[in-house]
Structure formats: C-alpha cells, structure tokens
Design brief:
This protein has 1202 residues and is α+β, with helices and mostly antiparallel strands. It is 35% helix and 17% strand. The strands form 10 sheets. It has a 6-stranded mixed sheet with strand order 23-22-19-20-21-24, with helices on both faces. The protein has a 5-stranded mixed sheet with strand order 16-15-14-17-18. A 5-stranded mixed sheet has the order 31-30-29-32-33, with helices on both faces. Helix 18 packs across helix 19, helix 25 packs antiparallel against helix 26 and helix 30 crosses helix 31.
Length: 1202
C-alpha cells in the first residue's frame, strides 16, 4: 500500500490526487476517446483454447485481482462467448501478481493496422546533450485505461473458476494495444505546453523530461502530472524518478551528455548459461542485440549464433567452437561497454565505415575535447548478393547500410563519411555486371543523393578497421592505396587475359556445340562435339544428361582441357556458355554458386569445372558466333559441322575421336539420309524394288500396280511402290519427334508412296513408342466387378473415411465408421482430419462401445496411412487394410454411406434450420432404423434383435416382470439375433473366384497418372513389369504400392535397348524366360489381329481418308482394331474413377443418390454387394494371398506368401 510519504514533498500539494495510483491496482479511464473496435478477418474461426493449469497460491491472487477489476469496470461477467483465451498469473519480484492473457490466436484472426510505435534506439537521441536534470514517469495500468467497444469484447473472453469474463478495456497481450495507446497518449500530450519548454520523450507509456536546471525540471514535471491526471491517466508513485541527475529509462542510464547500459541488464546477461535450445539462443541474441549500439562489430561476432536461430536449425543445440567463442565474446563486450555521447546537432558528424567478413562496420563520432567521441556503433550483415561482391563494391554496400542506420541520429545534419575505398568513383564511373540497375540506383540515392553527405577516402587510420576481429590486422595491411575500378574489373573475369575476339596467333581454332533432342523412341538424348577444321577432337553422348545447356558447358570444358598450354580460340553459338565465361560465371563463383535466397544455382558444379578448365590454356579467347546459318565462311561451316557431330553422337550414343576428317563432307542424320536417298535417287529405288521376293511383287500386281518402262513400280495414280524392307524406317521417320498418329502417318505416306502393309507397320510404330503410350489417353485394363466377402459378425470388419463439412464452431470434418456386417454407422464431428484424431476416437469412442474389430479398412489418405495408426493396429492386434489409391469403389460401403449422410443432413438442416452438428444425431438414428432392401432388416434390428421404438408405435406394457420372464426374454433374444445373422449371411455373396483381369506376372504395363501438373505431362507413367497379381490389383517392379488393374494399360514388352535407355526396373526374381515369352506372346497377339486386315481391304482403302489419332479423338477403324490404335483419345478427367466397361453399368463417378427413408437400396446408402471389391477383404486371391493393405517394404513376407 502506497502512502502520501512515498510522494515527493514538492508534488503533494501541487499535483492533484486523481493522478496517483495509491494501491498499485487503480485503473484510470482516458477521457474523450472513442471505444476501440476490432475488425476480424473474413471467415475466421474463433479460438476456444482451454485454460492453463495454475498453482493454488497464484490462483487466489488472480481471483482477488479479477474481483478488483470487476469493481472498477475493467472486467465484466458474461454468460457465454464463442471465444476463449487462457490467462496466466505472473508473480513479480515484489510478490504482486500480473494478469496476462494468451491472445496469440486472437492476434492471428484480427485485421492488423500499421504499427505506430517509436524506435527506442532513436528516441534516445532526442535528449539534448546539455540537459542535466531528468524526470521519468511510468503510467500505471496504461492499456486498461482505453475503453473497448461492446461489439469486440467477446473476442477477449476467458473462463476462470466456472465463470466467463470479458474485458471492457483493451487487454495486455493484444498485438494492437501498444500502437493504439501510443497514439492516444501522443494526442493528449500535443495539447500540453510545458512552462519552461523542457524536452519531453515518449515511448508508449514511459515518459521522460530533460531540463537544463532543477527548477525547470520541477515545474515542467508538475505541469505534466496535472495534465495526465486531468485526462484520466494514472501514475505509479513508486516508479516515479523525480528531478534527478541520473535516471534509468528504457534500460539505459541517462546522465548529462552520455548514456550507458544499466548494470542490472548487464548482470542478467552475464548470468545466462550457455543456451541448449534454439529458443534460448534467440533469447540471448535478443537481449544482447538490444545493446548492439555499445558493441563494436556486433554483427560479425553474433553471426555464428544467428545461424542457430534459423528455422532449419535443430531445436536441441550444444554450443562449441565458433558458437561458444561468440557467446563468450559477446558477454565480454557487455562488460567493457563504453559510455556513448549524446549527439550535439550543432556540430558536424563523422561516420567511419569499413567492411569485414561480409559485415558492415561503422562508428558515428563527433568532436569532443579535441578527439572524436563515439556516439553509436553500427553493424549489419550484408545480404547474400552484396556479400559476394568484390571488396571495393562491398564497401559501397557497407556505406549505404551505415548511412541508413545513422540517419535517425544525424537527422539531416552534415556528416562526413570516411571509407578506405573510392566509393564516389565506383558509383559514377563504374558500370559492372556485379550489381543490377535497381541495386546501383538505390546506393546512388542513399550515398550521392543526400546533400548532407560528404565522401572522403581515409588518408589516416580508420577507426572502423580497428574494431575487434580475427582478420583485422590482415585487412588493415590490405587497406592501402589501390585503383578500385581496376580491382573490380579484375574480379569480373575468371582470368585477366581472356578475350571475346579471335586471338592474333593461334595454335588451334576450335568449334564446340552441345545438343539435346529426342530419338525415334521419344527419349531425350544429349551430346557434345569439339571440332577443328581438320576433324573431330572429341565428341560423345552424355548419359543421364537431358539439357542442352549442360551439353554446351561440357563442350566448352573439354575444349579448354584439350587445349592445355596452347593458344586457342573457341567458337560457340551458346549465349549461355558465353555469358558464364565472360559475364556472370565469376560472380556465381564468388557467391559460392548460391542465389540471393541461398539456394544452389542450376548447373553450379558444371560452372565450377568450366571456370577451372579456363585456366589451362596458355592464351584463350571464347568467341560468340551465330547459330544455324547457311553461310559458307569457315566459322559458319565449323559451327554447323560441330552441331551435326553433336546430334549424331547423341542419337547413336557413341564416342568419336579423330574419326571424321573433313569439314566439307558432313554426315547427315540417319532419317534424313534415308529420306533423301528414297526420294532423290531413282536408280537405288529401282534396285530395291527389283530385289524383293516374287510373292511381294504379286501383291503389287494384285493391287493394280504396274512397272513403267524405266522399270520403276508405280500405281495407277503415279505413286511409287515402297518395298516392305523400307516400311519400318519410313514409318519411324514419319512418326518423328511430333509423334504423329497412325492415320496422320498414312495420309503423309499416301501423298507419294504405296504399300498395302504400311497401315500395320504404322500401328506397330505407334504401339511401340513409349512416349505415345505415356501421353495418349486410352482405357485401362478391364476388371470384373467384384463384391465384399462375408464378415465374421457385427463390428468384426469396419470401413472408415473422412468427409468435409462447412465450418461451424471449429468443427469441419466427420469421421464415418461403418460395420460391414450390420451396416451400423457411427459418425464423429472433428476439428482436424489427422492421425491423432483417428486414434483418439478409436480408443475413446468406438472400441470401448463395440469392442476390438478384426480389421479396419480405409483409403490411403495420410490420416489413415501413417505410422501412428499402424502402431496402434499392431498394439491392439487389428489388421489394417488399405485400398488401392484412386479406387473409391473398394470402399463402396462407407462411400455410399457418406452420400446418404450428407443428403439426409442437408434435408434436415433445410427443414429445421438446425446446424449440421445438431442435425447429425437425427441423421444417424434415421440411418440405423432404415431397413435394408435385401435383408429387410435395419442395422438396429440386426444388433438388438428388435426394431427401434418410435413415438408413433405404442410400447407393449410389461408389468410384474419376474426373473423367469427375463430369462425367457434373453433366450428368445439370442434366437432372434442368431436367425438375423443367418438372414444377413444368406444375402451376402461370397468373394469372386478366379482372375478378375487378363494381366499376369511378366507383362509390361503403363500406370495411369491421376494428377498432372499441366496438360503437357504424360497421362501414363512407365512402362513397368508386373511381378505379382491378385484378382483386382497388380504389383509392379519399381512401384512401391499395389495398383488397381483398371489403372493400368498393357503395352508391348520393351527391347533391351529401350530398357537400358529408359532405366526401366526389371526384378531379378522374374526369370528371363518369362520376359522373353511375354514379349513373344504380346507380339504374336498383335500380329494375329493385324492379319485380319487383308490385302484386298488394303487395296480398297487406298482412297479413304483416315482420321488423325495424334491430334484428335480416335475414329472407329473396325471391330478388330488392336488397342494400340486407340493411342490418341481424349483424356478421361475422372481422377481415377473409371466408367463401367459393361453395357448398362452405372457411372460410378456420380455421387451416391438416396431414396426416401422407407427403402434403403443402393441409392439409400446401402452398398450394392456386387460393386464392392475384394481388395478390402482377407479372402484368398488368385495364386497369391496378397492384400492391398500389406506394407510396401515387407518384401520378405510377400516372397513367403508367393
């Protein structure tokens, strides 16, 4: 309790009593202020955080404090609130308690305003350097003096001792409270005029008066206190520092002309033990960072600790090495922190700047007693881009940062910047590739655009270079006179003598090129070439490289390595490679090949190798030349030759060294050579036609082809006849990199050629092309419709799934669990759909009521397919079965129940205006009481042995019930339940027997991609080889999960070259004989289908116009067309829900409909047993007893089962 004796004698009669807080808990009320209204973000979810545990002694003190706040109108009791934020009681050193509320979740949902709070490091410099007397005033319960609007009071409610309280004033912990109160108090102080015009400094609710004389300080302090009391503020007498020469303000000790760090703050930092967690590191770093103006070279010293505070750092930390040294050094710096002078704006400032270890270091000084007295130390870490600049340019960045940091102290007064570099020359005369135009403009604006800034190069010792650091002495020795422009230019190039024009004297002239293109199979292949006028120095394909840029870098690197100790001029048509050599390669090297965000640059290792190889020649010039020109000069011919050689090596996967000897006779690509050979050389075509067998000529004659006098075979329309031996090559050429479909290839072929078998060859090329199989739409493997097997009894097998609902009261999801035997449904509203929620509901709700199930079945969502649910099922001896991805029919029962649940809930909510959580129990009762269409029994009857009693049905009165009657009832109930179980089992079909699809081990398939990032991505991935099969699913080599057979499409077995080029996984446990037999069977099957196309039909179809398959929907080509002809159908956007293959089968992508409550069939949420799939049961599969729920990595168990 505070008495009048605690108030200074000069203030007892001169200051009104309404300003004093005599109890330490009195709260004022600011006058003339509108209640604060808080705006909530749209669609925000109101938090309801439970109350934290509180010790008993703290609980009693908090209760007393709440009662006092209620009496003063700060708090009020309410009935309820949609929000709840927990409170805590913090015990002060004096033994009193402070009420703190955790409002972090409220702060996340409110619309924030721009904070208007002064910087404490800046406002300190408002104190005049000649002020000698000071007063410090601390307002009591400042935030609680601002009223809160009634419409916003519900946001800050809390529960305490079974009561709900709401704040009537803005609370502490609210993110906007400091800014709001700071503006209100500042507005109140604007009307105050101090009699002797002392300096008034305000930081939120802390006020300081600085005066030259004691009388001025006393009079102005009295005027300020009376003004505060008149506006409804309260002042704590115990915290008042009245008219003193030394005061404590914002952690600083203020006296005339200087300021120091408070000893209490230094002591608290020195007592801190080495941090062991990331949070403790942040706490220590924040405390010392507040004092960084007293610590020279703070950024460089604290850099090791700063890395530990980043998000990717470990939570558990052990300081060692540089980290422990930084921790100790920062503590020592706190012990020897100097007294900094107050700025005197009548004198000019001098800013000494330097850069060290990618940190900006500076000290702001003023002349005092013939020496430069420090006013403040500044330091900052350069951003990654500035840190990678040459030393002279890093100094420019350091000057810009230092001027920005000191502008709050200098405030536009004259300042001379002393730096050991020619900063002005670098900004005005240098145009380097190191900095972007925006960065250069920013530095020019800060440094050259400020009229109060004068730049000088240090001719004497720079104090900033003497700041503590490991390399300080070395850097001081290097800070000698130098030409900054020359040094910067030298740092731009990987070697100083490199040229971008041809050398005057050359030992050899080299042409390089890199290429990346697709081969006939659609596979990307890359190659490079290093050539001279005499021939090929080296050319090769690049295995595992799929980028032309990488190929260009490899070509340049090899050219430099092959020209070691030689004078060489290298011509390249790659702007990318030329730019790395001359412009930005060295810049990336200085930055450690990292971007401004810290991520590695693309092809960084290749750049590093190239920059190293550039040093090998004695003299070097890298010259940019034009690409793909038709010029006849030696540069154009050399570049074209290198391009052709690179493409040839890439396509043929070979390595060439000194094998092609003339630049004037370039080789052409195989497809182009063949095309020119067929079209232009008629003699060779004649020889090929005459070399065919007689039966082939007989087919030409049968197709009305004739032999001209020049012995060339042509049709009646004058088209040349192509021999069968050339069909495959020409078909691959027409298919080309555009991957034309069969019909487009036929139309191109018909323009100049004729052969009745080209149609079959075109189909084979399309069918074997891996790219076409991946990109083209088409139906997957047909799978027979199955059904779920029998369950052992009620709640022995259950299916579960999450459904999403509109957010209400924080509830957004519903976990639906259905018993396969009785169709009993349970639904639990939840806030989240995660594994912990599933585990809690199983352990707290389902299992205590219905017992432990034998199996739990679900989809592969992350909330079910995770380590938590797996360990839970293992601990409880429950078999977990996960269905195939993108196959909701496998969970047909729970999926149809979901549709029924949503439909009935929507109807009840629409008719009764109930919210969905309130309507959910009514929906569950309706579904549990609805009889099944097949069994005629409701889930309630199957479990209870009797129908559910409804209000419309009168109850049978049972009076005077004896023990014998109870026994008879139990016996009868058991008989009824047993008969109901037999009735349910009679309507449940057994699982299907035999294979449900045509796939078998050894087949090759492509797997459907249900999610594509863009329309340019393949629709199918693969091919993959089938190693295991069940009735509905397959296991493929290289694919971790089981795949439903309907999500696959069978393709031809790839050749050994394709397997090696595509790096296709082939398991060792599948014998090679199976692979070869599969290839033979698939090719024979396709050949037999093609043989149905007779030669007579081919002749009659010469004039038909076939539809193109690569660019439009597939047209019907007859009932016998192979599946490969469907290579270009429109994509199926069903996201994994396939349409029924049989006539009359319903579209399973549609939502499950529902009829009225009197009948539950397929549309009422009752699953059609014919549609459920056996991948969810535990019955025997074909040859392998493998279920979809088996873990992907359990290969040993799979092998034993097989």
């Amino acid at each position: 309790m505070i008495t009048e004796e605690d108030i200074p004698a000069e203030l007892r009669e001169t200051v009104g009593k309404e300003v004093w807080d005599m109890t330490g808990r009195e709260v004022g009320l600011v006058k003339g202020v509108e209640p604060v209204k808080v705006t909530v973000k749209p669609n925000a979810v109101f938090p309801q955080t439970p109350q934290y545990h509180m010790a008993q002694d703290t609980l009693m003190k908090v209760a007393q404090l709440i009662d006092e706040f209620v009496k003063q109108g700060v708090l009020k009791e309410v009935l309820s609130s949609p929000c709840n934020s927990p409170i805590m009681g913090l015990i002060k050193p004096s033994g009193k308690v402070r009420l703190v509320q955790d409002l972090r979740k409220i702060n996340d949902i409110v619309v924030k305003c721009c904070p208007v709070v002064p910087n404490p490091a800046v406002i300190m410099f408002q104190i005049p350097c000649d002020a000698e007397w000071f007063s410090v005033i601390d307002l009591s319960q400042a935030f609680f003096s601002v009223p809160l609007h009634e419409d916003s009071q519900f946001l800050f409610c809390f529960k305490f001792l079974d009561r709900v309280y709401s704040w009537c004033r803005i609370p502490q912990g609210f993110s906007e409270s400091p800014s709001i109160f700071n503006q209100i108090l500042k507005k109140d102080l604007e009307a105050l005029k101090l009699p002797f015009e002392s300096t008034l400094v305000q930081y939120i609710d802390d006020l300081l008066i600085a005066s030259k004389t004691e009388s001025d300080c006393t009079a102005d302090t009295i005027a300020l206190l009376n003004h505060l009391g008149g506006n409804g503020h309260k002042v704590s007498p115990s915290k008042l520092q009245f008219c003193q020469k030394k005061v404590k303000y914002l952690g600083h000790q203020i006296e005339k002309g200087s300021r120091r760090i408070m000893k209490e703050r230094i002591t608290s930092i020195l007592q801190m033990s080495p941090p062991k967690t990331r949070r403790e590191v942040r706490k220590f770093w924040g405390m010392v960072s507040y004092c960084r103006q007293w610590i020279p070279n703070f950024s460089a010293l604290a850099k090791p600790l700063l890395k530990l505070t980043q998000k990717d750092a470990l939570d558990a930390i052990e300081l060692k090495g540089d980290e422990m040294d930084a921790f100790i050094e920062l503590k020592e710096c706190m012990c020897r922190a100097p007294a900094l002078g107050m700025p005197d704006h009548t004198k000019p400032f001098t800013l000494f700047c330097h850069e060290r270890d990618a940190c900006s270091l500076s000290v702001l000084t003023q002349a005092h007693g013939g020496i430069n007295r420090p006013v403040a130390y500044f330091s900052a870490t350069l951003d990654p881009v500035a840190a990678a600049l040459p030393g002279c340019l890093r100094a420019v960045a350091a000057v810009g940062i230092s001027l920005t940091q000191s502008e709050g102290i200098v405030m536009g007064h004259p300042v001379t910047v002393m730096v050991p570099h020619s900063v002005e020359i670098l900004l005005t005369r240098s145009r380097t590739q190191h900095m972007t135009g925006a960065r250069l403009t920013r530095y020019e604006t800060i440094i050259l655009g400020s009229p109060n800034v004068q730049l000088k190069r240090c001719t004497t010792l720079n104090p900033a270079t003497l700041l503590p650091g490991e390399n300080a002495e070395i850097e001081n020795a290097e800070d000698v006179e130098h030409d900054c422009l020359q040094v910067t230019e030298f740092c731009t190039k990987p070697r100083p003598d490199i040229r971008d024009t041809k050398l005057d004297e050359n030992d050899q002239i080299v042409f390089v090129d890199g290429s990346c293109l697709r081969d006939a199979m659609g596979v990307l292949k890359a190659g490079y070439a290093v050539c001279t006028v005499a021939g090929v120095l080296e050319a090769s394909w690049l295995q595992g490289v799929y980028s032309a840029q990488v190929a260009e870098l490899v070509a340049l690197t090899r050219a430099c390595q092959l020209s070691t100790l030689m004078k060489v001029t290298i011509y390249t048509d790659s702007q990318y490679g030329f730019g790395i050599v001359h412009d930005f390669g060295q810049l990336w090297s200085q930055r450690g090949f990292l971007t401004s965000s810290g991520s590695p640059v693309k092809n960084g290792e290749r750049m590093r190798e190239l920059l190293h190889a550039i040093q090998m020649p004695a003299e070097i010039a890298v010259v940019k030349c034009s690409a793909h020109t038709k010029g006849q000069d030696y540069v154009s011919l050399g570049n074209a030759y290198a391009d052709q050689v690179a493409r040839f090596c890439a396509l043929n996967c070979i390595l060439l060294k000194d094998e092609w000897n003339s630049i004037t006779e370039p080789e052409l690509e195989p497809a182009e050579a063949f095309a020119l050979k067929v079209v232009d050389t008629m003699d060779e075509l004649k020889a090929l036609q005459n070399s065919v067998r007689e039966d082939e000529k007989a087919s030409w004659i049968k197709s009305q082809c004739v032999q001209r006098p020049d012995e060339l075979w042509v049709t009646n329309e004058g088209k040349f006849v192509l021999p069968n031996s050339l069909l495959s090559q020409l078909a691959r050429f027409y298919h080309g990199q555009a991957h034309l479909g069969r019909d487009a290839m036929i139309r191109l072929f018909k323009t100049d050629w004729f052969n009745p078998r080209f149609r079959q060859v075109a189909e084979a090329v399309c069918h074997r092309c891996v790219t076409c199989q991946q990109m083209n739409p088409g139906k997957g493997t047909v799978v027979n419709m199955g059904h779920i097997g029998r369950a052992a009894g009620p709640f022995s097998r259950m299916q579960m799934d999450f459904i999403e609902m509109p957010v209400h009261g924080g509830l957004k999801y519903v976990l639906v669990i259905v018993c396969i035997f009785s169709h009993w449904i349970e639904a639990y509203p939840t806030r989240r759909n995660d594994s912990l929620t599933v585990a809690k509901l199983l352990l707290r709700e389902l299992i205590p009521r219905f017992g432990f199930p034998i199996s739990l079945e679900s989809d592969r969502g992350s909330h079910f397919n995770n380590e938590v649910i797996k360990l839970l099922c293992e601990a409880l001896n429950i078999e977990q079965k996960l269905h195939c991805s993108y196959r909701p029919e496998a969970s047909g029962l729970v999926e149809q129940m979901n549709g029924t649940l949503k439909s009935r809930m929507a109807k009840i909510c629409a008719s009764t205006n109930l919210k969905w959580p309130d309507a959910l129990p009514l929906v569950l009762m309706s579904m549990r009481n609805t009889p099944d269409r097949k069994t005629g029994l409701s889930p309630h009857e199957i479990l209870m042995g009797r129908a559910m009693r409804l209000p419309a049905v009168p109850a049978n009165a049972l009076l005077n019930i004896t023990d014998d009657m109870v026994l008879d009832y139990c016996k009868g109930l058991a008989d009824v339940v047993r008969s109901f179980s037999h009735q349910v089992e009679a309507t449940t079909l057994p699982p299907i027997q035999g294979p449900g699809h045509t796939l078998k081990a050894g087949d090759w398939v492509v797997i459907k991609k249900h999610v594509r990032k863009s329309c340019l991505e393949p629709r199918w991935k693969g091919p993959f080889q089938v190693i295991l099969t069940t009735t509905t699913a397959v296991k493929c080599a290289g694919v971790p999960n089981w795949i439903h057979a309907s999500h696959t499409k069978k393709v031809l077995c790839p050749t050994e070259e394709e397997v090696e080029a595509l790096k296709l996984p082939i398991p060792d446990k599948v014998p090679s004989a199976v692979v070869e037999q599969t290839r033979t069977n698939s090719e024979q099957a396709v050949t037999e289908e093609r043989e149905t196309f007779s030669e007579d039909e081919a002749t009659n179809s010469l004039g038909e116009d076939q539809g193109e398959t690569s660019d439009s929907d597939q047209e019907a080509e007859g009932s016998k067309e192979p599946e490969a002809a469907e290579s270009d159908k429109e994509p199926d956007e069903s996201n994994g829900l396939e349409r029924g293959e049989k006539a009359g089968e319903p579209d399973q992508r549609r939502a499950f409909p529902e009829t009225d409550d009197t009948e539950r069939g397929e549309k009422a949420g009752e699953p059609d047993q014919r549609r459920a799939f056996p991948e969810a049961d535990g019955t025997k599969k074909e040859k392998e007893n493998v279920t979809d729920s088996q873990e992907e990595g359990d290969k040993e168990k799979q092998n034993e089962t097989v």
